[in-house]
Amino acid sequence: MIPYSFLDLAHVCEGVSISETFEKSVKTAQLTDQLGFTRYWFAEHHNMKSVASSATSVLIGHIAGKTEKIRVGSGGVMLPNHSPLVIAEHFGTLESLYPNRIDLGVGRAPGTDQLTAHALNPNFFDNARNFPENLLLLQKYLSDENQEESVRAFPGDGTQVPIWILGSSTDSAYLASALSMPYAFASHFAPTQMQRAFEIYKMNFNPENGSKPYTLACVNVIIADTIAEANRLATSFYRMFLGIIRNERNYMQPPIDSMDNIWTVNEEAHIRQMTLCSFIGTKETVKRELARFIERYEIDEIMISAPIYHLQDKLKSITYFAEVMQEVH
To answer: What is the Cα–Cα distance from 74 to 78, expressed in whole angstroms?
Structure first.
């Protein structure tokens, strides 16, 4: 059995407040803690009314304080939006509050549109070009090697918070391998280059200090008692992606009986491609498909997103997934 983890986008559902959304995250995290999940990560996004995880480090602290064992972290912090020193201080603070339970996943993208990226940081595009250098600087701020420097992270200095590189293309694979860092791929929305990225990462990995390559794939999982019900729950997920490609961002919508007459043939094809790494069905069907997926891509850890409208359906799906993972070898 490989480790299994959870990605929370703090999806804001139609008719649900932001406060209620965060309370749903607490209940979800507490269940994953009980079910043996390894990590609970939040993803940084901005200017999206359906996603409430913009203040990622704040939510990490909130969830870590409401759980006991599970590691809590970012999947990820979009580093070009921030100063490396500020992120080192934030995560150094979190590590000091919750020792050995904090992960720092970082990405190069803005997690938003270009106009908002500029509003977040007018130097975003320069920072994106300098991502490798800023990543090394962040790593240095969190290490023991920065103690003689004029600028230090307090808290943060010497905390050695584990840093992951996140990616949705092959570019990140080269960087993760060169820096001997664990590598998490966003196959839940960008599956096309996953296989090639993992091949590049493993082929070029620099075994510095005896480290070994470590791959994590994020996928979408929706499990219900019947295939028909799972497909019905998935309509909320599909409508969310439909809003993205139509540039009609909205709150997550309740499930409907069918997507017929909702999307066009071309839109359906596009969304099916974007959500190729999605496992939707019963425990039995998802178990077979997941086992093949894990074997084919030789991943070390799997992380799931559960884009489901109703909390009780989401918690049931997560419970079923944990049961599936106990049986997958």
So the answer is: 9
CA distances from 87 to 90, 99, 163, 185, 215 (A): 5, 17, 12, 21, 23
Q: Is residue 262 within 8 Å of residue 23, measured between CB atoms?
A: no
Angle, CA 15 vertex, CA 54 and CA 280 arms, to 5°: 75
Q: Over the stretch 153-188, which tens digit does the pLDDT of each residue have?
A: 999 999 999 999 999 999 999 999 999 999 999 999
Distance separating alpha carbons of residues 43 and 296, to the nearest angstrom: 26
Each residue's pLDDT tens digit, 28-37: 999 999 999 9
Length of the chain: 329
Residues 267, 269: Cα–Cα separation, whole Å: 5
User: Domains in the chain and their CATH numbers?
Assistant: 4-226+277-327 (3.20.20.30)
Cβ partners under 8 Å of residue 321, min gap 6: 4, 221, 223, 286, 304, 306
Adjacent-strand bridge partners of 96: none
pTM above 0.90, yes or no: yes
CB 14, CB 215: distance < 8 Å: no
